[in-house]
Amino acid sequence: MSKVVFLDPIDYISGKIAKKHRTIYCRKKASGLNYTTVHGDRTTQPSTKELKARERFTAVAAMVRARKIDLSKIVTDQEAFLAQKDTATGAKTMKAYLWRVCGQEYDEQHQNG
Question: Which of 17, 19, 51, 82 lies 20 to 30 Å (CA to CA) from residue 92?
Answer without folding.
Answer: 51
